[in-house]
Design a protein that fits this description.
Blueprint: E1 4-14, H1 16-25, E2 29-30, H2 36-43, E3 51-56, E4 93-96, E5 101-104, E6 110-117
Parallel strand pairs: 3-6
Antiparallel strand pairs: 1-6, 2-6, 3-4, 4-5
């Protein structure tokens, strides 16, 4: 996280697959959140709007992959009462807002949370 900055890419709402392209066009990539500390730091700046982040288990339920195909070994899910992920085969893409980090329907349209590498 110390080597990254995060931003919400434009006001354009797109499906999860479109969010990958939106971030790429903005010079970054769809944010990858893998630690509770990172999730909490990012969520402190968000509102109730849902934002796409990198990760999908569309190929195999419960096996979370980045859009590149790389496995995501640790996802700090957070739900209302701890029930995320809860979508089964109907909800396969990761989203977050100021309170939640969970799975949702990939074809719904939301803004993208992008991550960019920064160098000293």
């Amino acid at each position: 996280m110390a080597d990254s900055c995060y931003h919400i890419a434009s006001d354009l709402k797109v499906p999860h697959s479109g969010a990958i392209e939106v971030c790429w066009n903005a010079g970054g990539y769809l944010a990858l959140i893998t630690k509770n500390k990172e999730r909490n730091a990012v969520q402190a700046y968000l509102d109730s709007s849902w934002l796409w982040i990198d990760g999908s288990d569309a190929e195999q339920e419960g096996n979370w992959l980045r859009h590149t195909g790389a496995e995501i070994p640790n996802i700090p899910f957070k739900g209302l009462g701890g029930e995320e992920p809860n979508g089964g085969k109907a909800e396969n893409c990761l989203f977050m807002n100021y309170f939640l980090l969970g799975d949702w329907k990939c074809d719904d349209s939301y803004k993208a949370l992008c991550e960019m590498n920064i160098s000293n």
